[in-house]
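Throughout our pipeline, every protein is held as a single compact record rather than as scattered files. The record that follows is passed on verbatim for readers who wish to inspect the format.
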Amino acid sequence: MSNPQASHADVDIAIELLKEITAETASDQIGENDLTVEGQVGEGIHSCVRLGILRRGNNVSNVRQVAVKEFRHQHAVPPVSVLRAFRQEYRILARCRSQNGHQHVVELLGVTLEPRLIILMEYFDRGSLAQCLQDEAAWGEMSIKQHDMIHRDIKSHNILISGDLTTPSPTVKIGDLGSAVVHQQHDSLLQEEVGSSGYTAPEIFTRHGYDSKVDVWSFGIVLWELASSCLKDRINPFMGMAGEEFVTKVQDGCRPKLAHPHQIWFGSIVEKCWRFDPSQRPCMNEVIKQLEKISDEL
């Protein structure tokens, strides 16, 4: 049987947390009449993303399309876990915005707390890198700027593209910061198991902890996908694997195949990103420098 006292206590905690979030997000709150929510464009386990129209005042120039991320729940008061997830993503996005990080990370545009928990972000009309790869779209240049942050779910589905892909530099930004955490060098190693099958670094499933090098591993998978031309024509051997089985596979040398001729350009970078020992992987700045060098030579 459920414990009524425990349930009441949970609601009380949720109400207090909601009050804190209301105060913290005050400057970013959007009026209900300023937002029109349209069709769904994406879905996760605990949230969905819809297309929205944001209007600020009566000026037509202040009308724009936005991505509306709704945190789903079936309660009168959002559960504590949902509120914490909402606040964590809001804080990460706000931190990036304050440090001009939205040059490379999807920009926070506002929030609503009633009747639904919503984060408003830039809408990218070309979808994700994964969609473009599946449509055999052209390559886009990519760079990631760190802000004492570990994304923990880097994958092609979370790299968003806007603009004309036939130009040399379409707009490319990192999205879905729901798993991201602020983490500095002197902080303790992280232990929580997060990420997406096929992209997660092996150390996430060990007891030794992990740091920002998990994003380097994941980015190596994305580079392999880019070099493979079309996702559906390449097999990621790690899909559907986790835990000890996955760690053992990596220790035994299993990696996605680098067989296509033009993968020679990426081969050395990808192999460094996939080193089992995180300390032997390059940092993201080193990866970016190598990519820029390759771009100049192409």
Observations:
- The helical segments are 4-24, 80-98, 129-134, 213-227, 243-251, 264-273, 284-297.
- The radius of gyration is 20 Å.
- Residues 37 and 52 are 4 Å apart (CA to CA).
